[in-house]
Specification:
Elements: E1 6-7, E2 10-12, E3 15-17, E4 24-27, E5 34-38, H1 45-61, H2 65-81, H3 83-91, H4 97-121, E6 128-135, E7 143-150, E8 155-158, H5 166-178, E9 182-185, H6 191-203, E10 212-214, E11 231-236, H7 238-245, H8 248-252, E12 256-261, E13 265-269, H9 278-292, E14 302-308, H10 312-323, H11 344-357, E15 362-365, E16 386-389, H12 398-401, E17 408-414, H13 417-425, E18 430-436, H14 440-450, E19 454-460, E20 479-480, E21 491-492, H15 495-499, E22 502-509, H16 511-518, E23 547-549, E24 553-554, H17 557-567, H18 572-575, H19 577-582, H20 593-604, E25 612-623, E26 632-644, E27 654-665, E28 670-681, H21 684-689
Parallel strand pairs: 1-5, 8-9, 8-11, 9-10, 11-12, 13-14, 13-18, 14-17, 16-17, 18-19
Antiparallel strand pairs: 2-3, 4-5, 6-7, 7-22, 15-16, 20-21, 23-26, 24-26, 25-28, 26-27, 27-28
Helix pairs in contact: 2-4, 2-5, 3-4, 4-5, 9-10, 13-14
């Protein structure tokens, strides 16, 4: 390992600033040696927050969601190219290569994930339109719509020590995508790694001034300066989180506060998963992995292992046997599978918590001397895995109340599924719970009985095992957080994570006014009709509200039978008049719904070569009224929304146009409604200007 001394600075108001006063030492978890120092003394926290609001916020909000998403992607690519710089720094925290991979590359992966979702799930605007139009009046002249706009404050991110990279990036990704500047406050432990990745982000020059700031060291008065438009996101202990959540400024200004706290997560062995089954082996492997990955220093780690009564001994023996093969030591030494805790202070904390749990449980594995490879056990922050057994888990609360934030796990028996559910719920709110079973009935009973106490639940069996990411792996597309003791917050969860930094606004007005505001056509709004067919217009020439109303076409019995022959769809309602009437829905033979859609396209499509490149989607299709042979149909086609696409080099500049389609019968009654998505070429000059 390198003996380099890290002199960490803070990044405040666009400048690297060395803290003043007493310095805090950074200590190598493996050797106990001082590897650096830092201080936040002298920082003006109010000025930092004001700078983010005044400079960073307006700059970020000038970008669209798609532009911010592309920024995240470019940053992620740059970080991935430099990832090997970060691994040696991670080893100082006690993390193995595998542990570090989760932290470093997993963290970068959240940027990639949100870059993708930002372009796929949000409009290419500085705001986002959410949900359908809500009719608010009889004649349709007064309607409602929800939009989401960025908060105009700053996001204060207070992170824990266990994941110096992932903890920062999983919060930054949705916040920056939302257009909100961030102040990052990592735990001082491991902050040398956070500092390095933070600097690498700045080195990309992708983010505007004021978008990011960094505090390395104490920040005790930081929350004194938060105001109504700010957002605070905290990861750490439940006790600290509750103190911050009740901070006077947070309470007075109703500041959005998201908390992801410690939790006593459980893993349950189903009664069907007896020794000799694949599920039993999966269960043992999962429990041991969660005890030893990051030396058990994960908010999602398994703390309580719930097993059928009568299988306790088999479970203890199997877990103990697997734990005995775990090599503890210097994470840079070949063959080491578990490194030290983050600090000697953590060793003391875990020891004390484990001792408190042992008031209600006996130690069945661990304790005493243990070997350490490639390091001095006394100098480093090493702690051996410890397995406990609580015989009376319903009457003893210690295993359900006390978290030893390290490689400590308590086994507890249940007599039936009702009792198993009760034990799972006694954690009073968890980030994640898991159940290992191959029995769907067991899975349903347990999940429905415990779901309201968990943020995420994994059902593991032989079918999902090969591709499962495991109990302890939060994913950017799923919610990370949990109720009760776990903090009551939510992070990530795909688009949900972004909306935490957006204000939802209910708009009310006329269809035309809401169309003008949202740039998405609302039914009832003004329509623009001219002599040029919309398929003759480029993306840039098309305007929201451009409309054509087609000529009519009669639907004949011959049409219906020809479509049936061509498609192979000879459903009785299309082929037999008597049978069609008998079902109580139709008055006789009806035309295929998909034929109506096809015939509608025949009415509105301009077939000649032009700007329309391809049809790549049809959404929200509803058949609202049957079409019978002898009926006539016509179509109203309206430009509903336009979304410019980024144009890779060598491709045709283009955008996505969403068309609102209504198909009417001869009585002007709608028979089908849907949206069509087309790729439409852009004018090259306009695309370049954009």
């Amino acid at each position: 390992m390198s003996t380099q001394m890290y002199k960490l600075q803070n990044f405040a108001a666009g400048e690297w600033v060395t803290g003043t006063g007493a310095m805090t030492s950074l200590v190598d978890a493996v050797t106990g040696e001082v590897i650096g120092e830092t201080s936040s003394g002298g920082l003006d926290f109010q000025a930092m927050l004001d700078y983010a609001r005044r400079v960073g916020g307006p700059a970020l909000r000038r970008y669209t969601f798609h532009e911010r998403a592309l920024m995240l992607k470019r940053i992620a690519i740059a970080l991935m190219a430099r990832k090997e710089e970060f691994y040696p720094l991670s080893y100082h925290t006690g993390a193995t290569r595998t542990d570090s991979w989760v932290d470093i590359e997993g963290g970068i992966g959240t940027f990639f994930a949100y870059a993708s979702r930002g372009r796929r799930e949000f409009t290419n605007e500085r705001f986002h339109v959410e949900g359908p139009t809500e009719p608010l009046s009889k004649n349709g002249t007064f309607v409602g719509r929800h939009i989401l706009v960025p908060m105009e404050g700053v996001a204060v991110h207070i992170n824990a020590f266990n994941f110096p990279v992932w903890g920062m990036l999983e919060k930054l990704a949705p916040a920056l995508l939302a257009g909100v500047p961030c102040v990052v406050k990592p735990s001082t432990t491991g902050s040398h790694l956070t500092h390095a990745v933070f600097k690498a982000i700045l080195d990309t020059n992708e983010l505007p001034a004021g978008a990011l700031q960094l505090i390395c060291g104490e920040a005790r008065t930081l929350l004194d300066h938060v105001t109504e438009q700010d957002v605070v996101a905290f990861t750490g202990s439940a006790a600290t989180g509750q103190k911050l959540k009740s901070h006077a400024s947070v309470m007075r200004h109703s500041v959005r506060f998201n908390m992801e706290a410690d939790s006593l997560n459980c893993c349950m062995l189903g009664p069907d998963a007896v020794p000799g089954t694949e599920e039993f082996d999966l269960f043992v492997k999962e429990v041991v992995r969660e005890m030893t990955t990051k030396a058990g220093q994960k908010c999602t780690a398994i703390r309580r292992t719930i097993v059928p009564a009568g299988l306790e001994e088999a479970v203890i023996q199997a877990i103990s046997k697997r734990l005995s093969t775990t090599t503890i030591g210097n994470p840079t030494t070949e063959g080491v599978r578990m490194g030290p805790l983050a600090s000697r202070g953590q060793v003391t904390s875990v020891s004390e918590s484990a001792a408190a749990i042992r008031a209600a449980a006996e130690r069945v594995y661990g304790g005493g001397d243990f070997a350490v490879v490639g390091a001095d056990r006394e100098k480093g922050a090493f702690y051996a895995p410890e397995l406990l057994y609580c015989a009376e888990p319903l009457s003893r609360l210690e295993p359900h109340d006390i978290e030893a934030f390290g490689p400590v796990n308590t086994i507890m028996p249940y007599r039936d599924l009702g009792e198993a559910v009760q034990l799972a719920r006694m954690g009073r709110g968890s980030l994640v719970g898991s159940l290992v079973t191959h029995d769907p009935k067991v899975a349903q009973e347990v999940i429905l009985g415990t779901a309201c106490w968990h943020g995420r639940m994994l059902v593991l069996d032989r079918t999902s095992a090969k591709e499962s990411t495991g109990h302890g792996s939060p994913l950017p597309n799923l919610v990370h957080g949990g109720p009760g003791r776990a903090g009551g917050g939510e992070e990530m969860g795909g688009a949900r994570g972004v909306t935490h930094y957006l204000q939802r606004v209910a708009l009310q007005g006329s269809p035309s006014m809401l169309t003008a505001i949202t740039r998405e056509w609302t039914k009832g709004a003004e329509e623009h009709k001219d002599e040029v067919h919309p398929f003759r217009k480029t993306f840039d020439e098309l305007q929201v509200g451009d409309t054509i109303i087609t000529k009519s076409r009669e639907i004949t019995l011959k049409d219906v039978e020809a479509f049936a022959a061509l498609s192979g769809d000879k459903f009785y309602a299309h082929m037999n008049d008597e049978e069609a009437r008998s079902n109580g829905v139709f008055e006789g033979r009806v035309a295929h719904g998909y034929f109506i859609v096809s015939a509608a396209a025949g009415l509105f499509v301009d077939p000649a070569l032009g700007p329309v490149l391809a049809n790549y989607g049809l959404e929200k299709l509803r058949f609202t009224k049957p079409v019978y042979p002898g009926d006539s149909i016509h179509v109203r086609l309206t430009v509903k929304q336009k979304t410019a696409k980024d144009t890779p080099e060598g491709t045709i500049p283009q955008g996505v146009v969403e068309w609102d389609v209504e198909v009417f019968n001869q009585h002007n009654e709608p028979v089908a409604v849907y949206s069509i998505l087309t790729l439409v070429a852009r004018q090259r000059a306009a695309a370049q200007a954009a």
